[in-house]
Write a structure and sequence with these properties.
single chain; alpha/beta; Rossmann fold; six-stranded parallel beta sheet; 11 helices; 12 strands
Length: 332
């Protein structure tokens, strides 16, 4: 299926192409009923307006659209920086947008980026709104989903298994002699990769202990403050725990501060491990055990894959598993 054209919208809406153009350029110039017909046809076809005018309209720009959940999170900032470092010497520039973990906002960004005819699109994760999928499926440009692996990929996936991260964390705590271990997370309903890490952790606990695993999640987004809150609540519900896996290092740092306030020694009383290997982890006291994702490596792999696709149109999609690294330190 090729890219939907304005003529397709006109046919579905039962109007002329010039009327569709007018409805898109100046919505107030047409009636509400006509505008509704045009919008319904756009939704049905996944049509994306072409904002490149004149002779440029038939060509691709040397840009790559990249959508990440956040740039405050150093995970994604490092990935984007590596991607830019690799692509810019070859004449490609990045258009970068942040979705705030919202599928609807990702859809709006994808629609906007596609209207500028990018040479490729890069999304974070493999879960997208239906409208995003409708706009991307069948396009004649490379589509890369990064930071995650999964079934039913749009084209190429580059990342690692977050479920395996959770399993690795549980196994590490068991190897350190811990038997009542728990998962602590924040906002995993919107961060599906954190949810996958939780599921992998719980699977490993069930397989090893043959009992109901312990998990506590709070709705606010991950932060040091949220880490103190989730850990305080976890201890109130399960004072018997002797080990914990946190969905990221910021939560674990907050939990460490909570332990200091309560006089709980780490790792003697409670062993801890997180995810991310953020810079402060190697300098805190005790130093934080963690699982290191391939932040920069993902960006380089995405860029290398795109350059290959740009130079060889016959090259197809791939699944590239970059793995991760356990970094045991003092907290566990």
């Amino acid at each position: 299926m090729g890219r939907a054209q304005m003529s397709d919208i006109a046919q579905l809406a039962g109007v002329s192409a010039s009327t569709v153009s007018r409805a898109l350029r100046n919505p107030e110039a047409v009636s509400d009923a006509l505008r509704a017909k045009v919008n319904a046809a756009i939704e049905q076809t996944g049509y994306v307006p072409n904002r490149m005018a004149g002779g440029l309209a038939a060509s691709r720009t040397r840009t790559v659209g990249v959508i990440v959940p956040s740039l405050i999170n150093t995970f994604f900032a490092a990935t984007v920086e590596a991607m830019a470092d690799r692509l810019e010497p070859h004449g490609y520039q990045l258009m970068v947008g942040t979705s705030g973990y919202s599928p609807e906002r990702e859809e709006a960004l994808a629609t906007s980026f596609l209207s500028w005819l990018p040479s490729a699109m890069v999304l974070t994760g493999t879960h997208h709104a239906r409208g995003t999928l409708k706009r991307l499926v069948g396009l004649d440009i490379p589509i890369v989903e990064m930071w995650e692996l999964g079934d039913n990929a749009l084209d190429t996936t580059i990342g690692f298994s977050h479920r395996d991260v959770g399993r690795e964390a549980a196994q590490h705590l068991f190897e350190r002699g811990r038997r009542r271990i728990a998962f602590a997370g924040a906002a995993i309903d919107e961060d599906r990769r954190a949810w996958q890490r939780r599921e992998g952790f719980l699977d490993a606990v069930r397989a090893t202990q043959h009992q109901s695993p312990i998990s506590h999640v709070i709705p606010q987004r991950a932060s040091v403050e949220a880490g103190a809150v989730v850990f305080r609540e976890l201890l109130e519900m399960h004072p018997e725990i002797d080990g914990a896996f946190f969905s990221n290092d910021a939560l674990m740092l907050g939990a460490m501060f909570e332990c200091q306030r309560r006089g709980i020694t780490v790792p003697q009383q409670i062993a801890m491990i997180g995810f991310g290997d953020l810079d402060y982890g190697a300098w805190s006291s005790p130093r934080l055990s963690t699982i290191r994702p391939p932040r920069r490596e993902i960006g380089l792999a995405v860029a290398d894959h795109l350059l290959k696709r740009f130079n060889d149109s016959s090259a197809g999609g791939e699944v590239i598993d970059l793995g991760f690294q356990l970094v045991p330190r003092e907290s566990s």
